[in-house]
Amino acid sequence: MSNPHRSYDNTCGSPVSGCSGVDDGNGKKHVLRELKNKLLRPEFDIDDCGSCSFNGVVSKPSRRNQVSDIASRLDLKELLDACAEAVEEADILTAEVLMNVLEQRVSVSGEPMQRLSAYLLEGLRARLLSSGSIIYKKLKCNEPTSSELLSNMQVLYHICPYYKFAYMSANVVILEAMKNENRIHIIDFQIAQGSQWMFLIHDLAHRRGGPPFVHITGIDDSQSAHAWGGGLQLVGEKLSSIAESYGVPFEFHGAALSGCKVKLEHLRVRHGEALAVNFPYMLHHMPDESVSTMNHRDRLLRLVKSLSPKIVTLVEQESNTNTAPFLPRFRETLDYYKAMFESIDAARPRDDMQRISAEENCIARDFVNIIACEGAERVERHELFGKWRSRLVMAGFTPCLLSPLVGETIKDMLKEYSPNYRFAESQGALYLGWKNRALATSSAWQ
Fold it and tell me: Which stretches of sequence are listed as region SAW (predicted)?
């Protein structure tokens, strides 16, 4: 199980995949260059223009057919790579031909690579036309209704273990850290529907010696009010109702703002409450020093450290798309989501409309942002665990030794899924992967 990649930020040996980083392309076949060499042969008469046009660039139909014939001999991965190189070099003519060939071979109801290619193609097209941020914003405005989104999220929750991995690993860590505490305060920096805490409240209700007082501060972007069908108020009411049914003393406080705007006064930290802080697939949305001098990614970690929490849980995608240049970032995105789409494919039929909707509404938007947007408009900025570890250590945290119960819980959970999922523990982190590719990590800090 070894598949080494080069990382721009750091080299991190993953026990699942050798290393999950971007491949800068050294030593690999440069498909676009080979294609261009063929196109530049005299019989193609590259300076001879005809009637076909794309953004003002014209070419002969016969030449276009010859180029398409060459491109049709490439597999999807080679086509995507060649197209990404053409987009990077602003070679509109070559990009157009390759996109036309791709268009005929992708399908949202096809094999995993066909489905992934359909969305990556849209991201490349958006970047080429310099409309990435426009399309991304339009997608955000045209989100599915709250019931549709919840349905899509539930589909992903049941057919693949990525959300359960986050919830269950963090909950076990928090339960163990708080086993002797009578008053608990949990700050969740992306609470969404609050589903994670329903399970924790249930477990605390059956704790030996009786349940503690539980205070939850739920943070979520105010734009999520539409997505979650009413926002934090309904989340608080639901959790309060569940706590009451289990006899758990409970209080909820909602903070409808993004992590970039969180300050000490929003968190309502109280003396006498043991504090747990949860970062579930959230910190990669915070801009760092490569985007803004404010560096909200590290600022937020320092703020949390100043609260002296008893435990901090971090779950993140094991991918490197933060500071990598466009082409290696594209290759990393292709590699990462190819594994994810394969894992989803193992659980649902290819013509399953729920799966198609879940991939489109819960995953595809990220592709557009990673591939087509830059600067502050690119909010999907993943880092490898090695980089997160460096940030946490610089903020003053030390890693917590995970008890065997955490790993046993995840292994039991994975029995419900395909045997192609991989689980490992290394350097204080839990790794979840598909075949030879690490996809997520979970860790705990003090």
Answer: 372-446
